[in-house]
Amino acid sequence: MRTSLSLFCLFLSFAYCQTSDQIRPVPDTPIGYYEGDPLPPKTAYLTFDDGPSDWTSDVLDVLKKENVRATFFVCAAWLPKTNRRENSFKKYRNTLIRMKEEGHIIGNHTFGHRNFEQMSRAKIENQLEENEKLYKKELGEYSGNLTWIRPPFGSPFIRTRSETSKKRVGEALQGKGLVFMWTKEFDSTDSKEWVRGEWYEKGPRIDPENQSFRRKMDRIYNSLVSKTEGQGIVILFHDTHPTTKEVLPFIIEKLKEEGYTFATAEDYTKWRWGKTSEELFEEGID
Ligand SMILES: [Zn+2]
After folding, report:
1. What is the distance in A from the centroid of ligand 1 to the CA of 153?
2. Residue 126 is assigned to a structural domain of this protein
3. Does the pLDDT value for residue 52 go beyond 80?
4. Which of 18, 72, 135, 177 fits 149 for a cystine, CB–CB 3.0-4.6 Å?
């Protein structure tokens, strides 16, 4: 009897997991995509963090040529480091407008790219709000809302095992937007280091023919294409690295060869919930 009761409980908890259709780190965390959540097969979601930068328009050129749409998580204060009075949204305003016009999705990667794990609720909110405020100010009529959020470093959802941090940050993000993480195995590792020949801005330091640069491109390519088996994947890239834009066409071509199609965070909500992120955000579904 005891065995059948525990089996019944196991069944109930399994049934709950299946029907709730959510693998959120904690119940109060916003809906979205987290590691382990369902994804449509043979679908690749290309995501780019930390931009815009000098390399973003090159990334857009590749995506246009390949007829692929992607999702960009933008950060106002990432660049330029030399002049804090400027901001990336102002500097690359035209690139951001182009991004929108070419059908890509723009999400919030916070103002200053700080790790949420040790931050208070007020500071987390401030990081998101400041970024969106500046984005709207610089983009004006082209802006719209930043309904998608990607926490810097994926923290604490990918980075830490602390349930307390996940709960605290999850609660702070509630009502701020939808969260779009990446598939842990599909971190391109492009932001792991700066190798010889690459830098965050155009100039004499850039040398795509350098051996280190080529080796890094190979590493990025192999780390991604060696793990594809037809499963749905959310890939993490950074449009602040020139290696990324150089290797991107090869990755897209290989994924196409394997029968993959490409989608955005917005396509994801339509696939999973049959609604846009704006609709879901306004409903505040739980
Ligand atoms: Zn980042």
Report:
1. 5
2. yes
3. yes
4. 177
In a domain, residue 30? The reply is: no
**Encoding tokens for residue 38?**
């369902």
For 139-182, the pLDDT digits (tens) are 999 999 999 999 999 999 987 778 888 999 999 999 999 999 99
- CATH of residue 98: 3.20.20.370
- Report CA(211)–ligand 1 centroid distance (Å): 26
Domain extent, residue 88, equals: 40-281
Looking at residue 86, its pLDDT comes to: 78
Q: What's residue 84's pLDDT?
A: 61
Q: Write down the pLDDT at residue 146.
A: 96
Number of domains present in the structure of the chain: 1
